[in-house]
Known about the structure:
Elements: E1 14-15, E2 21-22, H1 25-32, H2 45-56, H3 64-68, H4 73-92, H5 95-104, H6 113-127, H7 134-140, E3 147-152, E4 155-160, H8 161-170, H9 174-182, E5 193-194, E6 212-215, H10 221-238, E7 242-247, E8 258-260, H11 263-273, H12 280-284, E9 286-294, E10 309-314, E11 320-321, H13 326-331
Amino acid sequence: MPDFWRDSGYHLLERDSRGHLLVSDAFLRAYINRPELRPIEESCEAERALHAALLQNPREAVSEQRLAALADPDARENYSVVLAFRDRLVAAGTLEQCYVELFQAAGAVPVPPLFVDQLAHVIARAVLEGCEDALRVRAGECLFRTQKVTINDGHVMAADAETVDMYASSGGFGSLGRLIAEAQTPLRTVELDVLTDENAALYWGRDQSHDTVLNLNFAGSGLDALCRMLEGWVRHFLAVEVSIQPVQQISDERWVWHIGLDVEASRLLDDLYNGVEVGEARLARLLSLFRLEIRDRSLMPPAIAGRPVYLALCMTEDSSLRLKPQNLLMNLPLAEGA
């Protein structure tokens, strides 16, 4: 069975009876060992002692007075942020519970976006455990990494935004490439591989390079892989079986529920539902519509039982695609107690 996404930290975790990921000391130590917390030559003794203590016991309580003793204000801030996140993880017990609680809190999400993406990364890895479909695994990257979308001759191509930016600025040669670019010397043209059913195996071994492209064309295998990934995401968190299929339009006089898979899509669906005029520029950013059906109708509120849920996927004005997979969890129309 292919192993992948070792950088997610999945191998540091075990599962509970529901298959959810238990917060382990090894996983917490990975945060204590982040570069932002690791002592450097200039670190004071108090900082070194705190780091060593937390490596020994990553659940150790740290008082405000102990943090105040750190000489470096940046170190104090970094420890404060990481320890607050650690405390949330420990209190939740599982990564899934922590993830859901982040979006149940009033106001803004109370942790840095990086930590949210890291949770989505390792949970998506758990969802995909045992999966041999490289296209589905590549589609899973969309849940925690921003994509850059290119539309050429009707083909909708999603490439990792960070990788695209790196090649755009350095041609893939790092600092040397940036120096060459600044000197206005032409760089090597780099073409990222588009995954297909025929060449999907090339993904294995490059899974942490984020240098393959997903084709999101309607009725294509890439979009189908994303649908199956989203179905698995819902099943893992909610133990609810759903079916998600792409559709070309919403022609439903009894349209009762919709969920945007990103900020742009949420706004677009709200406007379409409410009969607000939507300009061509916004419609052009619509990448796909989907029809979601909850297989067990008894899990839905009686007033809408059996009705489909419409989903949408949109890119931003700068052609970025930033999925919010939590939307499916927080907004799925389930009956109370389901």
